[in-house]
């Protein structure tokens, strides 16, 4: 996992952030990838409580993350608020088959 960014768990409610890296192994990368949490994607922290659980939004989708999972997602502040409909960074870079890139156009 790259050391560029800070863990998602350290962000505040209402912040827009861009995912820089996802750690935690293949299974976690696949699970988060299925939810749309991939490097380069912009997401918003919708709700965060003191216990570590948080609700994040990726496009129109909202889901909850626990403290452990949020610690393994590295993010950087984003100036591009709400551009959660990003396309894959390069043709063929999407690991999901079939590629879901067409859904975000």
Can you characterise this structure?
This protein is of the alpha+beta class. It is 14% helix and 30% strand. A six-stranded antiparallel beta sheet has the order 1-6-2-3-4-5. The longest helix has 10 residues, at 26-35.
Question: Short description, anyone?
Answer:
It contains two helices and six strands; from the N terminus they run ββαβββαβ. With 105 residues, it is an alpha+beta fold.
Fraction in helix: 10-25%
The rounded Rg comes to 13 Å
**Biggest pleated-sheet summary:** 6 strands, antiparallel
Separate helix tally: 2
Strand content: 25-35%
Mean pLDDT: 79
- Uncertain spans, ≥5 residues at pLDDT below 50? 83-91, 101-105
- Count every beta strand, where a strand is a DSSP E run of 2 or more residues: 6
Encode the helix/strand succession as letters. EEHEEEHE
Key features?
105 residues, alpha+beta, 6 strands, 14% helix, globular, disordered C terminus
What is this structure's SSE topology?
Blueprint: E1 6-7, E2 16-22, H1 26-35, E3 42-48, E4 54-58, E5 61-65, H2 67-71, E6 73-77
Antiparallel strand pairs: 1-6, 2-3, 2-6, 3-4, 4-5
């Amino acid at each position: 996992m790259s050391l560029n960014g800070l863990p998602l768990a350290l962000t505040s409610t209402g912040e827009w952030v861009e995912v820089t890296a996802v750690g935690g192994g293949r299974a976690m990368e696949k699970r988060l990838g299925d939810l749309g949490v991939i490097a380069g994607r912009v997401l918003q922290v919708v709700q965060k409580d003191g216990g570590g659980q948080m609700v994040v939004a990726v496009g129109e989708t909202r889901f909850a993350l626990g403290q452990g999972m949020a610690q393994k997602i590295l993010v950087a502040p984003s100036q591009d608020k709400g551009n959660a409909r990003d396309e894959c960074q390069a043709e063929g870079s999407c690991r999901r088959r079939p590629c879901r890139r067409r859904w975000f156009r």
